[in-house]
Amino acid sequence: LFFTLQDILSYHKRSHQRLSPGLYLGYLKLCSSVDQIKVLVTQKLPNILCHVKIRENNNISKEEWEWIQKLSGSESMESVDHTSDCPMQLFFYELQMAVKALLKQINTPLHQARNFRLYTQEVLEMGHNVSFLLLLPASDDVCTAPGQNNPYTPHSGFLNLPLQMFELGIVACFT
């Protein structure tokens, strides 16, 4: 019981930590069972999706958003013009570095992430000057069903947190 109480207090403390202001790239991975859906989070910050910081500025310019939209409509990264202007080159580089760091964090080789995609419906504004872009696995792999082999096995230090607990943690942190 003592260890459980320590674990509960530790979880409570970690789940109320906030991210520093900035733009982040988060990874959305779900696992389902008969009676619940779980979200992949880090043990250090269980109230936030697995993430890496892209930059200090949490805003995305109109030009950057249009570039992201163009990127999502193309078949591959190679077909998008990355040399058009300097600000877009910087944003492309920052996003590219964030994707590589996030893939390393979740233990997914770059070649296995070929079908990953960027969520382009909106930028998630969490509050307190924190914004998220979401990296999604291939549509068939967003949610792993019971008994289904998960091709992406993250390093230790991750939890599959029930969705309800995740929602409570994120609401408590960003409101």
Beta-strand fraction estimate: 15-25%
Kindly state the percentage of residues in helix.
25-40%
User: Which secondary-structure class do the elements indicate?
Assistant: alpha+beta
Determine Rg (CA atoms, Å): 17 Å
| N-C termini distance | 32 Å
Number of helices: 4
Unreliable runs: none
Summarize the helix and strand pattern as letters.
HEEEEHHEEEEEH
Report the average pLDDT across residues: 81
Mind describing the biggest β-sheet? 5 strands, mixed
Q: What is the number of domains?
A: 1
Features:
175 residues; Ankyrin repeat and fibronectin type-III domain-containing protein 1; globular; 5-stranded mixed beta sheet; 23% strand; 4 helices; alpha+beta; ANKFN1
Précis, in short:
With 175 residues, this protein is α+β, with helices and mostly antiparallel strands. It has four helices and nine strands; from the N terminus they run H-E-E-E-E-H-H-E-E-E-E-E-H.
